[in-house]
Amino acid sequence: MSRLTEISSLPWVRWTAGAVVAVVLLVLPLVSSEYANQNLARIGVFAVAVLGLNVVMGYTGQVSLGQIFFVGAGAYVTGYGANEGWNIGLVLLASILLPGVVGLLVALAAARLGGLAIAMVTIALPIVGVPLAKRLSDVTGGSQGLSSSFSNAPAWTGLFNDQWQLYLVLVIGGATFLLTRNLVRGKYGRAFAIVKANEAVAASMGISPYRYKVLAFTVASLIGGVSGFLYMAVIQFTSPETMTFGHSVTLLASMVIGGAGSIVGSMLGGAYYVLVPQWTNAIDPNMTELLQGALLLLTLFLLPGGLVSLPRAIARRLRRNRRSGGTGHHETPSARPAPGRDGVEETATDGGIPTERQEQV
Amino acid sequence: MKRKTHLRMTSAVALVSAVALTLAGCGRGDETGGARGASTGIDDTTITLGVTTPLSGTTAGPGTCTVAGLQAYFGAVNAAGGVEFGDGKTRKVEIEALDDAYDPQKAKANYDQLKGSVFAMTAGLGTPTNRAYRDAANSDQVPQVLVMTGDPIFSDTDESPYQLGFVPTYVNEGEAFGELLAASGEDHTVAILSQNDDYGEGYVEGFKRAIEGADNITIAKELTYEATDTSVDAQITQLAESDADVIFNAMSITPLAIASLQKAQQLNWEPSWFLPSNTSSPGAILEPGKASAFPGVYSVSFAKAPQSPAFAEDEDVQTFLSDLQEYGDYQDPPAFPHCMWSYMAGATLEKAFQEMTEPTRDDFMEALRGITDFTAPLMLEGTSVTTSESGQPAVSTVVVQKYNGTGYDTVEDFG
Lengths: 361, 415
Hints:
Chain A is mainly alpha-helical. Chain A contains 17 helices and four strands. Chain B starts with a helix and ends in a 5-residue tail after the last strand.
């Protein structure tokens, strides 16, 4: 384990790994089948939605059941703007800002309430969103929905539509992931973590829980808007059904299954959201919900930390086996580091201190 | 050391790029391929049809029926040898059904998954779910036919060259009521309650179009409700004040339909009722709503109801029920008309297959659009499948029926 960490911390290894990932992402859309591209793009859409949810729930500890509303709002703004012939950059901006403004307004009111009361307020969003989308039929197309094909590949690219759409997702989604990663690993991430752990402590340190809750919620709705833009780019259709409450719950389940408070976990959550209905369909289309429920329970029992904790769980098991083999190597299990410190969390530790640092010491 | 690192990195990137480009070269083959220009999903012995429909969630009941009816029909056909196509070959019909849980996003994903292996999409239930992949089906030139939605866009040949709706549009149904009432020759006052969306609007539009110019009909009061409302008591009370003798209730929500029947009785208001085809089930709505108290409850239909005593001995109905049990994996008598509808859609597809002279999607669309006055099994007298009329779904005629306490009888006159 420690040798692996050592190698992966060498700068040239990191650079090469980064370059390889970039090249693979660049080439992947060109080589994979149409269906694989479409699936990857869909995973990207929902990974971004789960990422937004993670900011408010995983990192800041505030239960939100309204994330799908922001996705839907972003999709509607995108569809409307694209059909009106707005500049696509403007459409992207509007599809992020409008859900963000709504999110800010809701958060200003909701964050005054403590604990689960916020969850109750956020439930209202999808419940209001569906009839609202039906009623504003001049803008939203009513219950027949809204389609838009703004994301078809431009002729000059020579690309297939699915390839172009996957590139859009990779670029916009990738940028969102990068920005969010920087946010949660910096000053704000630490503030979120303290608000999550103990609001009184946060306040005593001069961190206003109210302000950071509002901030986290607003960021989540901005990211939801990005996801909505990508939704429209990939699925090219939205209707009030997009925003139903059930999807919000599925997003939440995806976040928990992927791994709460984790960037990689958000990607895994997106994959769960998209792939599991397909797998259950392949097993028996008449029992999809039952199978999904069973899978959810199974993951929560076996991997309470989500799929992202799988490598750690395996490593722990291996280490335990080695210890029982009698190597005598002394190790104490490390306490879970504070959320927002994934850099530490994801490196191997020895006696609670990351191995790489130990060697420096 | 540094130069060496740099060199290694460059060579790694170069290697990956080279592999990737090689793969890219052979990535996209000719997808249409196939023997002698045949479309995807068809060969000399089989044809595969795809279905995306809700099999879980709140619309799972009717959704399951759309698959069961289709499987029942083609199960029986396959057991008898298969369909003899117009090109002289006999093919078995296979059905691949996937669950979309009434989610447009999943419907699109299912379509993306199926389009590489099926010849045509068919029989799926739901307006948003079918709309979600309509554009894609058009640009891929994949037929999306005989789908179970009353949305008129699927029957507009200009907008939807590769689509065709199966069931009558909401306008068709509303019109049938209006025509019956206008033809009665007596004076009637009508109260209208409709769902505030395209569903309710379609019904009311059809109804009003049919009574246009009929002096004997006056609309006393017209109200709407939202599909998300949990009660329409206030609307029923207001409508009762008008003392109309007919209520046209364009409602798609089962509990609300029951509640409105009950509320009218509480208010001692006893009009005749017009109910849309999907909220007029004798067992699920009229009995709990104690509809026998009213002078008449009318609905429209084009399918024989297996529960109705009038059709208990009917040959079509008996074959249908046994096919449904044997091949459709549906043991109980069907609770939703969608079972009958997709059974008829199966018969319509078979009819089109028999006319196909080439195994291509375009030839299939041409054959499908050339059907006139075909009486599919289970169809009521006076209704038929006609696909050649632009702007109309495959079944555009319905007959008005009156509730008799247990089931429905077809009626010619109002009253």
